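ok, trying the design again with the full structure, not the truncated one.
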């Protein structure tokens, strides 16, 4: 572009030297060439700045996603953590109450988990927890949630589910978990869990429902483990 412009200016000077003074045309060409060079440099710098800003934005988005993941997920199992599932429960119970649908919370505790850690090591214990988490995710519906509640204890949120249906769901999971191979756990060692279920009537009932599920879990443990209990005295859901 700038070379062609110079050639045109030189041709004009040659054919009409009076109308196109050589020094004036040369000064014009130098000015235009310098301006175009400066524009090219600035455009390059702006392009590099845009690329850097785009890369920084992508890195920031990725970092925010990692922070969000760390804030809501258990690092070992990848399940929702306690805080995150409590927030999910608030929303799910409000929805259930609004639409007159039942919702069950369940607490599950892996049986003889301390023995697994003591006998086979904590790394094997971690794999047992991860195996339970994967088995639970496979068995649950898309609207269901499972979270690591603490240690070897897990909390389930089962919307549109009554206690009988919740027991069926947990029994199905129990059979699935029984046959999950875990590296480091000898063949023949039966993996099992105990569980307690409770209907949750409203947002004000969440803590009480979890407490009822915990008492039902204790009853299941006391009755021999590897089973699911509910409390006969649990109040009916007023949803």
């Amino acid at each position: 572009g700038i070379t062609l412009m110079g050639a045109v200016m030189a041709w004009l000077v040659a054919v009409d030297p009076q109308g196109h003074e050589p020094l004036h045309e040369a000064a014009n060409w130098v000015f235009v060439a310098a301006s175009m060079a400066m524009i090219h440099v600035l455009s390059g710098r702006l392009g590099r700045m845009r690329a850097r800003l785009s890369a920084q934005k992508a890195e920031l988005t990725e970092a925010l996603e990692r922070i969000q993941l760390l804030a809501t997920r258990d690092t070992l199992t990848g399940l929702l953590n306690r805080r995150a599932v409590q927030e999910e429960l608030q929303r799910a119970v409000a929805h259930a109450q609004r639409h007159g649908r039942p919702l069950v919370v369940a607490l599950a505790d892996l049986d003889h988990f301390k023995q697994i850690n003591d006998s086979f090591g904590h790394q094997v214990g971690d794999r047992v927890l991860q195996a339970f988490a994967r088995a639970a995710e496979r068995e649950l519906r898309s609207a269901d949630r499972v979270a690591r509640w603490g240690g070897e204890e897990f909390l389930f949120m089962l919307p549109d589910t009554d206690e009988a249906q919740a027991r069926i769901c947990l029994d199905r999971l129990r059979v699935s978990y029984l046959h999950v191979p875990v590296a480091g756990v000898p063949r023949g060692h039966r993996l099992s869990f105990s569980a307690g279920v409770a209907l949750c009537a409203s947002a004000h009932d969440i803590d009480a429902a979890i407490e009822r599920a915990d008492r039902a879990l204790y009853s299941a443990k006391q009755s021999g483990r590897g089973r699911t209990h509910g409390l006969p005295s649990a109040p009916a859901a007023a949803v």
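Keeping the full-length input from now on. The first strand starts at residue 103 and ends at 110.
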